[in-house]
Amino acid sequence: MKKFNIRKVLDGLKEVSSSTPSVQVGPQENHLFHETLQSDHFQLCKTVRHGFPYQPSSMAFDPVQKILAIGTQSGALRLFGRPGVECYCQHESGAAVIQLQFLINEGALVSALADDSVHLWNLRQKRPAILHSLKFSRERITFCHLPFQSKWLYIGTERGNVHIVNVESFMLSGYVIMWNKAIELSSKAHPGPVVHISDNPMDEGKLIIGFESGIVVLWDLKSKKADYRYAHDEAIHSVAWHHEGKQFICSHSDGTLTTWNVRGQGRPIQTITPHGKQPKDGKKPEPCKPILKVEYKTTRTGEPFIIFSGGLSYDTVGRRPCLTVMHGKSTAVLEMDYPIVDFLTLCETPYPNDFQEPYAVVVLLEKDLVVIDLAQNGYPIFENPYPLTIHESPVTCCEYFADCPVDLIPALYSVGSRQKRQGYSKKEWPVSGGNWGQGTLSYPEIIITGHADGTVKFWDASAIMLQVLYKLKTAKVFDRNRSKEDKGSTEVSDEDPFAIQIMAWCPESRMLCVAGVSANVIVYRFSKLEVTTEVVQLLEVRMQSELNETDSPDGGGEPTSAHHTPGASPHTSGPPSQPSTSSNNSDGGNMPCLKVRSTPLKQSAGYQVDLVVQLVWVSGEPPQQITSLALNSSYGLVVFGNSNGVAVVDYIQKTVVLNLGTVELYGSNDPYQRQPRSPRKSRQPSGGLCDINEGSATSEDRCKSPTSVLLSVCPPRGANPLDHRDNSFSRSRSSSVTSIDKEAREAISFFHFCETFARKGDSTLTPCLFVGTSLGTVLVLVLTLPPAGEQRQLQPVIISPVGMLVRLKGSVLRMAFLDSSGSLLPPSYDPWYEPNVTTDGEEKVPKRRPVSVSPSTSQELSESQYTVVCSEKQAKVISLPSQTCIYKHNITETSFILRADVVQMSQGVCVACFCANGHIKTLSLPGLRPLMDVNYLPLTDMRIARTFCFTNLGQAMYLCSPTEIQRITYSQETCENLQEMLGELFTPVETPEAPNRGFFKGLFGGGAQSLDREELFGELAAGKASRSLAQHIPGPGGIEGMKGAASGVVGDLARARIALDERGQKLGELEERTAAMMASADSFSKHAHEMMLKCKDKKWYQF
Q1: How far is the C-alpha of 339 from the C-alpha of 370, rounded, in Å?
Q2: Is 197:143 a contact under the CB 8 Å cutoff?
Q3: By the 8 A CB rule, do 655 and 796 touch?
Q4: Rounded-to-integer distance, Cα 258 and Cα 503, Å
Q5: In the sheet that 152-157 helps form, which strands lie side by side, from edge to edge?
Q6: From which domain of life does this come (predicted)?
Q7: pTM of the model
Q8: 3-state SS record for 925-981
Q9: Residues 516-560 pLDDT 10s
């Protein structure tokens, strides 16, 4: 690698105008660094989606393959096998999935959508694809039914008709059951949409059709007429058969269940209202809420199960949604946390004409998936092994760490496993299909999510799986007993006082620091031992606003004595929470600081509170929200900032080391002309994760600020994560940076601890803190630390501002340091040690990472580091200690960057950026060459901006919905290995044997009657369907879909099999066509012969 020579650079060094898109500041820079990263190392693709399917609408289960499918209102399809086998697909139209039907044990799935299209998915490949689609144009689809081991799909419509589709060719049959033929004269009015279709379990030739109005018809497919009609005066929601095919049960809109004999005309043999109050005088029970679905499942040894959702009486106001299980004389009402979307009973057999032997019920709720064990007393639920609890409380922030220390995940797992709930079913999770992928990625990955209720969750994200490791409740530190006045204000302002805003984590030392919306910072240490903290250590910090018009010049500086009050209320220095006129404005400023617990706190193994820092009210002003946070375990310091300034806390000595207004950081060389103003003019509320145009200032005021911190730093409120505020990103944000608008405050946007050259021309490395602001300035603070050991406990840390290093356009988002060869210099850290064990007098000596410094001439030494600074608009690389900008690149002119990270790839280091216009870009380091620019996704809401993060080795993630994490990769290597890493949904399984009919049933014609559906529905018998009824669309999932299937022999076999299937299908179609042509030629010759005979003896004038 060539040695970097600064002399060549300085010869032609000039500051270049910022309008040029990419600049090397210097004439012949390209050869100075040998950069290993190239464009072909990058490729962007989605890897996997985790979490609960957002807004679910339908569900299906394959009882042989043991795979669960869930469809959503946005057209997404999530497939679940055994824990770790998950798959996400998307219908292009985005229409809601109204019904799903597996082709049981065939590796295929039929989906029906709200836009009246039906699709066939091929699940025999790792990324399922659509084989065929059928789009209805004249009728709306309301219900589908696919009998077991049949290739004919029944489709019921809103007009009351039933159409039949061949699943193999996805062609409509000419056989149609018209509503008027089905009901004939039994009703004068239209019977309404089809709400149910199913065939008699014992006779495939008999089809039951349920109409919404209350009419049920038993249709004979062969004779094309109705055998029986059953009329009820209440609307029907669902129908279920007894497995012997002699009875069926209907659920109704008045909360009743009616049982009918197949041959019994007129009246049901039983009508019950399970949740209705029975009047004593024999009258009808009062009506209840509708029973939306009923299932009727039989067992060999005991009573049958009748399971239904809904049907509660109307007077149970506030009662949670329920699933009712009736078994013999016992009725169990199982309350659910959320409304029920759908439920399925899992049975031992896939055959509808055998004893069902139900063993579990899968209940799909609006925000959860529950599986109930029917075999155990009390119906316990199974412990859900999927990562479906991401949204337990709304996610407010995320961090993603790839390539963590190897001992971290086992350590977090061991403390997290003690938090498990008890009382689950003892049985294995029943959804157990599929196989895991053969992953080659072996490095540990951890995702941390912060939530609106103050919880922090640690997830193991290694090898494209996700599993919760450990959950920390930060709200335990505070008193929760809030007064009635407070409750009133929380309802109005919809606040989450404990919500996590920013997290800082050091994986090596396991130190964790979180900042909450109530302007509090909590420092945690990791311990494997339980401990009881008598008094929670508390530090109170007064961060004053900028200079007041009436204040003396030193009034805004450092009046800030930090009160060290170990257990006392945080309101000792600020005013108490009385509703004074200044604090009770409509802008939500009356949110008091949280009160720290005064009672002893029992802390179990895991993360334990070391220190709480609270910003307090100053002269009637609520504290400003914290906008940036960092910690360094080697220095024992935590630093946080807001729009008032910076505070540095020594968490070893539990003292405030520095508390400076932003203006003081500049010293005498402040480049901005600041207007003195009263702090009350633009007060912001302290609570709530302020959205882009929420808070005290109006959105027009906010727009004036070119780099308002609220755009890039403050995440939106966790309580309503679906604020679609597209307009907030479309506005232009270019304006002169040097003149600040009166309303704009310079907030602190980023911190970076490092050992570097603090001043121009320094020859020694010193511990420093680099501070980035929302106006694009990077300021340097020098840290003077006492020697390690006992002295570190006693002597103070001294911090002195040095002034400004560089200025960029837009708010500073990220900083990093490189050594002279262009390798990343990570901040120093202490290794983890057990904090609750003190060996006699032995102190842990902090180990600092050695920084490579070549002890040669001062000229060579002087160029041994580079700092990378990335703002919302541009990136710069500055050489230290000469402090000259050697590279500069304007990343975006029209948009702005929401997230930037300096990441380590396996081939080198780069800057990864996510822009508000949806582009994901990477730049080389230190040369800032553009390596990748992909228009990935437009920013549709603030959630993506708030949760997007890049990490090492080409991994990234964001919350694509309030309940789901989408992981993506920008590494070519990972994209190539992805196919192997993904799990397989379909595995070859033998279909269970059909139930034995028995000797007598076979002799006397009992048992299941089969039917040649091909004979009835095929083109020969039924003719062709009307072309205008539905359009067939071939899908991309044929041979093209197989191209991405697993390589090697298995893949080749699969491809060969699919090719044979397709060839066989084409040959079959050809044969059918030939047969049809022969038939039509035959009929033509017959007609011609008849015509000839008729006309043979006629004279010409007789025609």
Answers
A1: 12
A2: yes
A3: yes
A4: 57
A5: 141-145, 152-157, 162-166, 171-177
A6: Eukaryota
A7: 0.81
A8: CCCCCEEEEEECCCCCCHHHHHHCEEECCCEEEEEEECCEEEEEEEEHHHHHHHHHH
A9: 999 999 999 999 999 999 999 999 998 876 554 333 333 333 333
